[in-house]
Every structure is written in structure tokens, then in C-alpha cells.
Write a structure and sequence with these properties.
It is a single chain. An eight-stranded mixed sheet has the order 5-4-8-2-1-11-15-14, with no helix packed on it. It has a five-stranded antiparallel sheet with strand order 9-10-16-12-13, with no helix packed on it. The chain is mainly beta. 13% of the residues lie in helices and 41% in strands. The chain has helices at 2-19, 92-95, 224-242, 323-328, and strands at 27-37, 43-53, 61-64, 69-73, 76-77, 80-82, 87-90, 100-110, 114-120, 126-138, 147-152, 162-165, 170-171, 178-181, 184-188, 198-205, 266-269, 281-287, 290-295, 304-307, 313-319, 332-340, 343-351.
């Protein structure tokens, strides 16, 4: 009798082991995304994830798109780590090493989710169109049992989106059916999404929906020819009307009109002469029966010279700021301070 009882108990235990379901694994039981795409091409995402954990995890991260920005978790800032394919968000703080079901809300922004895609049209010309590239999942380490999304566009949706499994590199539209209603796209998965899989939504969008994004494709340097023409015109103008070559210093030898080399007591004023405005006119001297204008790095607005035939000295009136220059070239400061148009001058002399 005792032996039969033991056999009966063993049979019950074996049947229980066979029919008992396997223990549940850790997973994301639900991932719900509410996404608003603005007219600048940025996506504002609110993602709510429900986690079922069968074991305590001291470290656990949830992946977001690699270019996600302004990330918060449950309304507070959170630690993130950038990897090659995702931005890993540390959700261990919200779980605190416990076992069970947990809900985490992640808010973030995907900047420039609307891309400019270049292509060559039938005429062989380079053109472009706009395409929305929106990651819905970015490869969570656990399976996602159910995923849903609601996307609001800035205008009515005109073209059908495409859903692709990045892990399988194939379309999964049969696994995640969706519908379009005006400006909204809604979808729900009907089969679990495998662990480490990513889901990408792509859709061609009209240009007028995103007026701030230009589809202009630059081909070559179209502005180069106009620039070269402008440079050539500027050079010709300089040569013809400015009558000088740029960046070349030179000496001009001229005979002042109406004044002979032998005129005695010649009193000349150089105000308004060529170069005087920039302070380049330095000396006007009598040399070998003609007058010589020397252009140099002076800072003189007005120079008064008294030149006599056979004279042995040059006397001039110099601004105070130019005294140092004249002293370097051999002029003596006579110390006779006077004012010309409210500007202090001194008389200077040099033996010749």
C-alpha cells in the first residue's frame, strides 16, 4: 500500500512538470510611442515602456536613437551613454534592483529626422526629395511583446510609410499593421519583436510640408564665373582710374605746373595733392632743375616747403605726430610750435 502511494505521488509530480508552463522571461511587455513631427523636421517623442523583470538587475539600459537629444526619464534628467548604434539610457535607477513590473516614461527629441535624399531624374539632372527616417525601436536586449505608435505630421500624409526590421533587413509591415487618418499614422504590432531588433519607419514627405528644409543640390561652382568677372572688372577699374598698381611703392618725378626750376622764393603748399589724404606725401624738393615728389610712409596732411635755387637747406612745417619720422631722416626740430587748422605743427629744417 505504501509503495503504491509513493508511485502515485511521483506520477502526479511528473505530470505537473510536463504541463506546467515555462517560467516567464524578462521582457518589455509594452512600448507605446507618441511622436509629433514639426515643420522643422524634428521629432518630439514620448515613449512609455512597461518592463516585466524576472530577475534583479543592478545595471539595465534602454536604447534610444543614436541622435536622440534632450532626454528625460519620468520627468527628470538621466544618465546616458552614446554607442555606435544607439543612445543607452540607464533605467536601473527607476527599477532599483527589484523584480516585477515597472513603467518608465522616456521623453526625447530626434533632430533633423527629415532628410534630403539626392537622386538623378530621368533627364540625368541631380535633384532631391524629402524623406522621414524615424527609429521606433533601437535594439532592446529583451523581446518587446507589443509595440504601438501614434505619429502626428505637420500636414496630411500623402504617401505610405515603410516599416523595416534593421536586424532582419526586411519589411515587417505584416507584423505591424498601421493606418493613416489625415495627419496621423497609428500602428500596433501583432507579433512580439525579437530581442536586439530595431524598427525603422521611412516615408517620403512633400516639400511644402517642411518649407524650411531646402532640397537644393549644389552642382559644381556656379558662382565662380561671376566672381572672376567681378575681380577682372575691379582690376581694370583700378588701373584705368586709380592710375596705380596695387601693393607697389614707387617714386613719382613731376614738374609742378606753372613753376619754373629757377623761380626764387617758391612757397608751395602740398594740401590736397595725390596721396596727401593717406599721409603718403613726404617731400617736395628741388633737384637738378626739376621738382621731385617722393611718396613714402609719412603721416602728413600738409607740407610747406621753401625751395630756393642753390639753397643749402629745406624748411618744412610738420605735424607733431610726424616729428619722429622727420628726425630719423635728418631733420632738426626748431621747436617753433604753431597750429594749422587746430592741429599742432612744428618747424623743422634739414641741411642739403
Amino acid at each position: 500500500m505504501k509503495r503504491r502511494l509513493i508511485m502515485f505521488i511521483l506520477c502526479i509530480l511528473m505530470v505537473g512538470v510536463i504541463v506546467m508552463p515555462a517560467s516567464a522571461e524578462s521582457a518589455a511587455t509594452k512600448a507605446e510611442s507618441y511622436i509629433n513631427v514639426n515643420s522643422e523636421g524634428d521629432c518630439i517623442v514620448a515613449l512609455t515602456v512597461t518592463l516585466h523583470l524576472e530577475a534583479a538587475y543592478e545595471s539595465l539600459t534602454f536604447p534610444l536613437p543614436v541622435d536622440a537629444a534632450n532626454i528625460t526619464m519620468n520627468g527628470s534628467s538621466v544618465r546616458t551613454v552614446k554607442t555606435a548604434n544607439a543612445t543607452e539610457v540607464d533605467v536601473a535607477k527607476a527599477i532599483n534592483g527589484l523584480v516585477g513590473d515597472f513603467t518608465v516614461r522616456l521623453d526625447y527629441t530626434i533632430p533633423n529626422a527629415v532628410k534630403v535624399v539626392p537622386f538623378e531624374n530621368e533627364e540625368g539632372k541631380q535633384t532631391a526629395y524629402l524623406q522621414l527616417e524615424l527609429p521606433l525601436l533601437s535594439g532592446f536586449s529583451f523581446p518587446v511583446e507589443q509595440m504601438s505608435f501614434v505619429i502626428t505630421m505637420p500636414g496630411n500624409v500623402k504617401w505610405m510609410p515603410a516599416l523595416t526590421s534593421v536586424y532582419r533587413q526586411s519589411s515587417i509591415e505584416s507584423d505591424i499593421p498601421f493606418k493613416i487618418d489625415g495627419t496621423m499614422i497609428t500602428g500596433n504590432s501583432i507579433v512580439p519583436i525579437q530581442d536586439h531588433d530595431s524598427v525603422l519607419l521611412t516615408m517620403v514627405v512633400p516639400n511644402d510640408m517642411f518649407p524650411s528644409i531646402s532640397t537644393y543640390i549644389r552642382v559644381g561652382n556656379p558662382e565662380l564665373v561671376p566672381m572672376l568677372v567681378c575681380i577682372g572688372v575691379a582690376i581694370v577699374y583700378w588701373v584705368l582710374f586709380c592710375r596705380t598698381w596695387p601693393l607697389i611703392r614707387r617714386r613719382n618725378v613731376i614738374v609742378p605746373e606753372g613753376i619754373s626750376a629757377g623761380e626764387l622764393g617758391c612757397h608751395l603748399t602740398a594740401a590736397g595733392a595725390a596721396g596727401a589724404e593717406d599721409g603718403d606725401l613726404v617731400l617736395l624738393v628741388h633737384h637738378h632743375d626739376h621738382f621731385v615728389v617722393i611718396v613714402g610712409p609719412g603721416a602728413v596732411d600738409q607740407i610747406v616747403l621753401i625751395v630756393d635755387q642753390g639753397a643749402d637747406e629745406i624748411v618744412l612745417s610738420a605735424q607733431m605726430q610726424a616729428v619722429g619720422f622727420y628726425e630719423k631722416v635728418g631733420y632738426e626740430n626748431l621747436g617753433e610750435l604753431h597750429y594749422d587748422q587746430d592741429c599742432p605743427h612744428v618747424t623743422m629744417k634739414k641741411k642739403i
